[in-house]
Amino acid sequence: ETVPLKVVIGSNSFAYGGMRVAEHAGILEKNGIKAEIVVAESGNAATTALISGSAEVAASGPEQVIAAAARGQKIVILGNLYRGLSGSLVLSEPIAKKMTVKRDAPVVERLRALDGLTIATPSATSAYTVPLKTFAEMNDVKINFTYMAQSAMPAALKTGAINGMMAGSPYTDAGVLASGGTLWIDGTGGELPEEVEPTSSTVLQTTEEFAKTNPDVVKRLIKSLEDLKEMIAQDPDGVKAAMSKAYPKLDKSTIDSVFERNSANWAQPEYTMAQIQKELGFVKTQGRIQGADKIVPESLLYSNP
Amino acid sequence: MSMNTAAVNSRKATGAHEGRAPTQRKSWAVPLGLQQLLVFVSLLATWQITSLYFSLDFWISSPVAVYQEFIRWYASGTLLNDLRMTLTAAGSGFVIGSIGGAIIGFLLGWIRKLGDLLEPLILSLYSLPKVALAPLFVLWFGIGITNKIMFAAIIVFFMVFFTTFQGTRQVDRDMITNARLLGASKFQTWTRIAIPYSSIWVITGLRIGLPYALIGAIVGEFVAANAGVGYRIKEATSYFNTSGVFAGLIMLMLISFTLLGILKLIEKRVLYWQTAEVALGEDASKHIP
Amino acid sequence: MSMNTAAVNSRKATGAHEGRAPTQRKSWAVPLGLQQLLVFVSLLATWQITSLYFSLDFWISSPVAVYQEFIRWYASGTLLNDLRMTLTAAGSGFVIGSIGGAIIGFLLGWIRKLGDLLEPLILSLYSLPKVALAPLFVLWFGIGITNKIMFAAIIVFFMVFFTTFQGTRQVDRDMITNARLLGASKFQTWTRIAIPYSSIWVITGLRIGLPYALIGAIVGEFVAANAGVGYRIKEATSYFNTSGVFAGLIMLMLISFTLLGILKLIEKRVLYWQTAEVALGEDASKHIP
Amino acid sequence: MHAPTGSVDAGAGLRRPAIDFRDASVRFGDFTAMGPVNLTVERGEFLVIVGPSGCGKSTLLNLVAGTLQPFTGETIFNGAPVEGLNPAVGYITQKNYCLPWLTVEGNVRLPLEFRRFPKAQVASLAASALERVGLRGFEKAYPRQLSGGMLQRVMIARTLVYEPDIYLMDEPFGSLDALLRTKMHDEILHLWKDTDATFVFVTHDLAEAVTLADRVVVMSGRPGQVKLTLDIDLPRPRDVVDIQSNPRFGGYIKTLWEALDLN
Amino acid sequence: MHAPTGSVDAGAGLRRPAIDFRDASVRFGDFTAMGPVNLTVERGEFLVIVGPSGCGKSTLLNLVAGTLQPFTGETIFNGAPVEGLNPAVGYITQKNYCLPWLTVEGNVRLPLEFRRFPKAQVASLAASALERVGLRGFEKAYPRQLSGGMLQRVMIARTLVYEPDIYLMDEPFGSLDALLRTKMHDEILHLWKDTDATFVFVTHDLAEAVTLADRVVVMSGRPGQVKLTLDIDLPRPRDVVDIQSNPRFGGYIKTLWEALDLN
Ligand SMILES: Nc1ncnc2c1ncn2[C@@H]1O[C@H](COP(=O)(O)OP(=O)(O)OP(=O)(O)O)[C@@H](O)[C@H]1O
Ligand SMILES: Nc1ncnc2c1ncn2[C@@H]1O[C@H](COP(=O)(O)OP(=O)(O)OP(=O)(O)O)[C@@H](O)[C@H]1O
Ligand SMILES: [Mg+2]
Ligand SMILES: [Mg+2]
Predict the structure, then answer these.
(1) Which pLDDT does position A77 carry in this prediction?
(2) Which residues of chain D neighbour C280 with C-beta distances below 8 Å?
(3) For residue E242, what is the DSSP state?
(4) Which of C10, C15, C20 sits opposite D67 (nearest CB)?
(5) Which stretches make up the ABC transporter domain (chains D, E) (predicted)?
């Protein structure tokens, strides 16, 4: 029999694309899950909804799970939805034109060229900010970060209020298309060095309580992620068809390019202890989250009883 | 000056004896609706031309593009469902918020001591930016329809509360005293004097609050939803579909417009005595004292 | 019944001849401030106890935790800077919005035809959820302080506009006619009659609008900022730091509280005639006609 | 002066006064508006008060209605001091308090509805009150559609309609024409005769005072005190036109006029 | 009846009437409130209008002030039809229009400020107007602190203060006591003699009418029409107390009373 399940995701961006494909390709249904997908304002809001008990499952960045754990909330990660960074850095047209460094130069040189520029990111704590900021600090590059809603970034880029934006797709695409910007550092393509790149952009999560009382549902979810991985490998056209159902506003060529850029990242369901430790390490070195050092890493990962 | 010109020039009198305007020989009314339509059409034209001329389509869309978006929205079959969702949340929120606001505003305005005592408290709550509460609301009320209703209700509550509170404080105390002398119980001075007296303020509160019920529902949908006009706007925003954003916004405007129209009809009924044209005529003339 | 009990029982008279209350033999006033303080303290206590007793710390924080958060915020040295940022934006927005709202509300309320013509337009704009306009605002006003000021200004504008508009429409036309007969020019009927008459509404509008200036600034900071009270709230939100969210919200409450207090003083001055205790006394008694 | 028991005594012989002002004075701030006044109004009496403008006549009535409290002294009403509003009186105030959102009829029905008169009676009582003040045909009009005198008559009808035991009337016929005023005098005198109610009536019209009164009180200028009490010893029932040709009529007026003139 | 030139003629002999109602009638909806009225008020005349309550006396004054427009006919004022408000008149309305947020003095200064009187004059003019109506000492009081009669006097002072050429007075002395009323009559008659202004004065008090008037117009019941015009041929200047003992005084009152009674 099928179980109804409310799944809340953090945005309409492609970082959550795997979940939507799984829904529209019938993978969830095949595994006996009748999912209702709700889109929240941010990953933070998605996790909040999970905590409030109005959704059984949420998807958001691993740092949300850590932050919640630091405040005593027991949430476990069921699997990975998007490997690595889902965002990229786009420069405005006039700045890109002035650049002496070429687009194909090593990423460190491209980073150095950003010295003194004003770059917008969603927030000081966002998964897009932290890698870039850490990378810049490592190389003594001074970037002026300013924080704004991703939807406002292309407009700011066009009017020259910012020199560049660090955001996820499709905001970056709009930044390129509507404001004549240039894709400067491709985060989704894994251009950032390993030591600053996050392990994951989005993970599937639920409360410890729910996982304990519904091991069967959890099993089906994990199975769905594996099925997705397989489908991406075996049936790219089926995935694309599901994508055009999930994102009816996108045309064929956009779907193709989105698939090319993101599908590999959607197909990494395993989230390991090592990855959790790496994330915790980021959080601790930056001292962003009080009480993060008290977290027991094992408690964050769902373990099959 | 001939009698004819005098008649043409004679204006609708306002005066120490106004209230009911005296009957005039002729009247030259330009239909207001037509004028408003003209203003509306010229605005649309300006929008279309600006958009075309400066190629601002991506940023401000254009009436034609918005229209096409509407058609698509309708054809996809989600329009009605979205409307239903948003209207349910906004409607319930409005009803809860305005009843609460009117009653509490009335009570605190009326019972002066209680009003003085609790005013700072309510003011503090009013000063809270509701948008900042959004995450807390998700925590407290989840992401279902309750969240949206509560959001709409709380915003409307304050709007209606404040105007009613202020209005009720203005009620002529002498009028009340006089009614008490005529034998009114405390309760009757409420129902027969204070409520009719402050009804204009309550209605102002409702007018101010009504669009905010929609805004509240929309913001609730921004925070978390999978359908509704607010969700469509957010979706359109994510794909930089400016026409879609405007289509959603215009949908909202149309809704609050309709609702405000209904409210205006109610207002006319409630405040009918301000403009009533009652037939003294025949009957009165017969009984000269 | 002895005279003494009568004196104790005699209440502050309200009456057909009220306005200025007659002098009483004794008066038993309980200081309002103290009562309000009591309400406030007991609310805090309830909050703390509820939070402790039901271990709701994560959900609703607690006064002690919020206090600690304040201390941390202050110690980190950002508090004053955040305050300055937010207040500047809110203050400028308030001034611009309320002046605009009062003037335009007054004009459209006063010039009835214009009001009837443009009301639907303004209502439509009012019905728009400003948050959805954020990208357009960035396009128009950038991401600096102008953006936040405009956000605050636009929200305040509508609040003040609406109450002023409604209030000005209520001005007693007979009073105006009478003033015209006394020789008032159109302009003088504005300055000497209509403005004093509708001042109570303008002030209500300001009271309703003031907290919204802060809300506007905060929303502006949500959209784009790297400091300010709104930014702190957002930051706290993203760490599930409920105490931090409350600290920010309470900061806002304190600010609007102070500002509303100032407004109340102004109101007292402007509407002094409603409560003035003018000394007829001596002087008047001498000149019995 | 109190009756031996607390209960309302039925016997006419043992009647206590309807109203008794004992050293009553009213102040606004430091300004003494009225008094101290010592005055007793007997049950069933028709008392008229005259006095210069602003001397405190309305203030005196307000004390009885309980809308003001005295600064010194007290107002005894039916044996007990007035504290708080006193709905036992029928008060026709100087200021107009018609509710603008009710029709003339609605305004007149108001006290009946407040006092829970049986539904069946309400309509006929209201109609007859309106008839008595000459407002038939204006039942459906709103206050703003009435002339000054018509408004005043609505106020009168609104009090007559529920037949209180004590009427306080503050210049009730001020804006009525001479003819209508005469009619109203007649009406009032009939009412007084038929119901045995007590009247305290303020006016500036000395002829009106003498026509109606058992006793006229002249108040002095601000702060108003009782300056003269004049018993009007004219035959009852009076015909409001004929009474004026009574030889004593002119004399009373002259006395009052002189008392006022000395202010 | 028009003057040969459009300019205001200076010679007293060629004077055109101050006000001329030509078939003027007023309707509210289907209800004819007044008229048609044909009446000419000569320049410098003291015209008094009496008539039953609700017959349209205030309505008639409103036509002159331009606050109402006629349904038929027209109101000629100084040779031209009244269209729109007519601030050339000084109108003491029946309803009170004191501004509650101004003191008594502020209210009286208002028309002077509106009419841009020199600053130096304003204070002394206001003080003298208040003196004339007996309100000295109440300059700083607010309207809500005044008695009914005092409010009425503020309204009077507010019109006297700027000395218009034409006074429209709607029951101006209705709430004044007999003494004050006599004083005000005296005041008004002096004003009239000194300034040669035109008065249209509505009252219900027939003695007042005869005391003041050159001519009394009696209006019929609703809809009010001119029923009788009575020239008052009493000597001028009049002493307001002595005039009452003039042998013709009583006769005039009787004529008026009878005209009213026939309604
Ligand atoms: N609310 C008030 N505040 C201050 N003074 C007041 C107030 N009400 C009345 N007074 C003063 O009290 C005095 C008496 O007023 P009251 O209304 O009793 O006079 P009155 O005799 O009824 O006069 P009138 O015949 O003009 O109606 C007046 O001088 C007035 O200025
Ligand atoms: N705004 C109005 N709407 C409808 N009817 C009106 C209006 N104003 C006056 N009337 C009617 O017109 C008639 C004349 O009114 P007006 O005020 O001129 O009477 P009046 O002669 O001044 O009476 P009073 O002596 O009582 O002041 C009245 O019957 C009244 O009902
Ligand atoms: Mg009085
Ligand atoms: Mg009148």
Answers:
(1) 94
(2) 28-29, 31
(3) G
(4) C15
(5) 19-246
**Which residues share a beta bridge with E77?**
E19, E80
Q: For residues C16 and D97, what is the distance between their CA atoms, to the nearest angstrom? A: 9
Q: Are E158 and E110 in contact (CB under 8 A)?
A: yes
Name the average pLDDT for chain E.
Answer: 86
Query: Phi and psi at residue E81, in whole multiples of 5°?
Result: -65, 145
Residues A115-120 have a mean pLDDT of 92
Contacts of C161 (CB under 8 A, 6+ apart): C100, C101, C102, C104, C105, C122, C205
> Where exactly are the structural domains of chain C?
67-284
C174 contacts E137? CB cut-off 8 A: no
Contacts of D138 in chain B (CB under 8 A): 280, 284
Distance (Å) from CA E148 to ligand 1 centroid = 7
Question: Which amino acid appears at position C122 of this protein?
Answer: I
Q: What is the pLDDT of residue B88?
A: 92
Count of CB atoms situated within 10 Å of the CB of A94: 11
Give the pLDDT of residue C24. Answer: 52
Residues in CB range of B73: below 8 A, 6 or more apart = B79, B82, B232, B244, B247
Nearest CA to ligand 2 atom 3: D145
Reported as a single tens digit per residue, the pLDDT across C11-54 is 333 333 333 455 554 445 667 778 888 888 898 899 899 888 88
D135 touches chain B (CB under 8 A): yes
**Touching chains A and D? (3+ Cβ pairs < 8 A):** no
Alpha-carbon gap, residue A89 to D61, rounded angstroms: 84
Is residue A39 left, alpha or beta, with left meaning phi > 0 and alpha meaning psi from -120 to 50?
beta
Query: Measured between CA atoms, how close is A67 to chain C, in angstroms?
Result: 5
D84's tokens: 């708080």
Ligand nearest to the CA of E175: 1
Domains of chain E: 43-54+88-259 (3.40.50.300)
Tokens representing E52? 């039953």
Q: Which of D83, D99, D125 to substitute to test the interface with B, most B CBs within 10 Å?
A: D99
> For residue range C93-125, what is the model confidence (pLDDT) as tens digits?
999 999 999 889 888 888 888 888 887 788 788
On the CB side of C248, CA atoms within 13 Å amount to: 29
Q: Are A222 and A303 in contact (CB under 8 A)?
A: no
Q: How confident is the model at residue D11 (pLDDT cuts 50, 70, 90)?
A: very low
SS percent in chain A: helix, strand, coil, step 5: 50, 20, 30
CB neighbour burial string for A201-219, b if at least 16 within 10 angstroms, e if fewer = bbbbbbbeebbeebeebbe
The ligand whose atoms approach the alpha carbon of D34 most closely is 1
Task: Name the pairing type of β-strands E31-41 and E19-28.
Answer: antiparallel
Of D201, D205, D259, give the one whose Cα is nearest residue D230: D259
**Residue C47 in tokens:** 């909050």
Angstrom distance (rounded) from CA C226 to CA C70: 19
Task: Please name the amino acid found at residue A127.
Answer: A
C–D: how many Cβ contacts below 8 A? 81
Using the predicted structure, report yes or no on whether residue B284 has a pLDDT greater than 50: no
pLDDT per residue as tens digits for the range B180-195: 888 888 888 888 888 8
Task: Pull the structure tokens for residue C28.
Answer: 């038993």
Asked if the C-beta of C241 comes within 8 angstroms of chain A's C-beta atoms, the answer is: yes
Q: Does E127 touch chain C (CB under 8 A)?
A: no
Tokens of D75: 């107002």
Q: Which of B240, B242, B243, B245 has the highest number of chain A CBs within 10 A, making it the mutation to test binding with A?
A: B240
Nearest CA in chain B to E86: B15
